Amino acid sequence: MERAREAQEHEGERGGAGHRSAAAAPALELLVHGVGGTTPEEMLRDPRTVRITGDRTAAVYRRADDTDAERHPENHRGRPVPEAYVWCNLTSGNAARALWLLLLPFMVANLAHWMRPMTTGRPRTVRLYGLIVRLLGLTLTVLLVAAACEVALDLGAWQCAGTRACVGRHPWLGFLSPAAPDAGWWSTPGRRLALASLVPVALTGLLWYLSHRTWSAYESEQPVSHPAEPGEEEHRSALGRPGFWYGRRLVARLRAAHTAAGFLTVAAALGSPAARHDRRHGGVALQSLGWLLASALLVGAAAAVWVVCSRGRTEQRLDRDLDRGLVRWLPRGALAVLLLTTVYTGWSRPGWRSAGRLPGDTTFGALALAQGVLVVALGVVAHVLHRARPDARAAMRGQAGPAVAMLACALGGVMSGGVAQRVADWLDGTGQAMAGPPVVLTWQASTIPPLLLVLLVLVGWLARRTWLLRRAETEAVERDYPGEPDDSARTLRIASARAMAVLTDRAPLVVGIVSAVTLLLGAVALVGAFATDDTPEGAAHGTVPLVRGAAETAQALGSWLIGVGFLLFVTWGRRAYKDASARRTIGILWDVGTFWPRAAHPFAPPCYAERAVPDLTWRMAAWTGTTGGRLVLSGHSQGSVLAAAAAWQLGPSARKRVALLTYGSPLERLYGRWFPAYFGPASLSALHREVDCWRNLFRRTDPIGGPIGLPGDCGPQVDRAPLKDPLAHGRTRQDPLPAPILGHSEYQADPAFAEERKRLLARLRPGLPGPRPADAPAGPEPEDAPVGPGAGGGPVGPGAGDASVGPEPGGVSAAPEAGDVSAGSEPAQPDGASGDAPAAPGA
Fold first, then answer.
1. pTM, whole model, 2 decimals?
2. Does the pLDDT value for residue 793 go beyond 60?
């Protein structure tokens, strides 16, 4: 209020009507860092910084000298007021987040949901794509819990505790052994299984707790709402829809369904051995109870699948409904079935003995088959979507989603098989006392060596291509630095950096080949396990020596590799828990992998963008609404993706007051190719039209950033010519020491950065409205809209700022794009939306 009164008095002295020129208002540069994070001191290049809004998790900082920029704009003429949005603690600030490595398959499956091809007018096919990915995510949850059941129930309680030799090696299991002289109450098979079921139950409960805690912290952030403005199109780009960054309802429903599926998986593993015994030797009462529990289990499973299938994302509006009854009672009902099954299994059955292994082959085989069928179906649906609207820049011709989904299943299989194999080897050191893990898992482990051979061939091919490209780049480097002293070693290093940066563009080929080989080897393993009902080594007995030797080698080496790989995985997580630098590296992985909302799997690591995008949008709306000043949104690397997403969320009038400066940006090179439905040519073209101006900086040595490839009205195109890296080839009087090869870092140190920022500030159109007088009537506020803080002043809502601003001349031409709205109709995107967006050249 104080700032508004000062502005009103100032305008009264000038005799104005509540408006002032843009020159009287300070300009703001909002900096957004990239992957890995940084400090506000480094971003603002000043040791004295002040947090002006936000908390310890994510906040906006200014230099101490700039805190009064709104009250004294005359002190900031000729230069922008820099602000830094620091969001690194959303992904890498907590040591416990290193344990999220164990959720990697869930995260990869969630990525597959967002990799669907761009399409037009096929809402049912789009919904089918999302449905298949959600079902695939459900199978991953069941696979993880089934692996825990295999370790605890089968290997531990059933096989080892029921074998005298194994109990002799592990005396701590003696109280469970029926062979002990003082066999106690827990020694019967049913009670051993009931006690061991606490392990997978605890795992399911832990997953529910982590998902619920992060859901309360991340999915609870509401995006900016603004009243409709004249000229605003009804269907905007998908990332600009009101509910895109608010998936609270869907995550709650999926969490309930996956938690119920986990409990029911434990109930099935626990009750099946008892029911099988009762069908042969039990009485009528136990048999009837077993059938009733099996029926209840099937009903619960059908309910969980129905919840997963029945509803997708609602992006067209801010959906605040939570389906509280379903979210509460579905997991509770599954837990009740599990408790009844525990009592049923623990009932006394004289003469019941444990022998062999539990029927895990059927479970793991059925899961592998279901995942293979779902991946193939997803590939067919993706092909149909891609053919409807082909995109030459889309990775793998639209098959990126199915390929990544296949990798998620492979990761889940490796982790589950690795745990089972290592625990079996630890419990049964001789390899003679126990039957071991299911045959299917052994066959799957045996496919690891052939897959590694394929990877070695790919690495060799990439190495040769890189070597050839380095030779070609050597000549290009010499042309780019004419007149420099001859330094072949320096030239070779620069050429090598450029050649290595191109490897990023080879990723679709590598992922495609690895996924196809994985699918083929998985099918071979499944057929071999069910056809022979024996391990590869056992199935090869009686064959020619070459086949027998290959089978024995593959089984032994695969078991060792899968076990060692899992141990390295866990060791890395433990090291990251203690080592801040390792934890920072893992945080970088999540910066890239958890940008997208949890639309397919509720147990995936949380989406930090559901907090970061509303933060940025609120900050920009508050600034433009209270000062009417100019704003340059400056994003590096992943920060440029957040900046683009936040700009889409602004109202049209506020968006036209924003200029976008990106550098080292993966918007087209990675996101545009792998997520074409959301960052394809049509979407990026729409963003370019909707902001006032956009400039992009990139280097040929940058393995992440690249050109956008759009024409522009700030110059010949959005992209500036590739920046020199290094700035000088050799030693000069200005640079007596060799200039570093920067690659993806320190774009702000390049003179081109300051030049482009100055051009953007000068271009922003003048005559922008100033702050609304204190006694002016408030504009329309969105219902239940939260209040955003203005820097250095009282609370200011973006609705108020937008209400005081009329539409810009010429309006806004936004290109709507079909989003992944799995419930309700999907808006069609006109075919001409991407007509002015040529494909970007390769980096």
1. 0.84
2. no
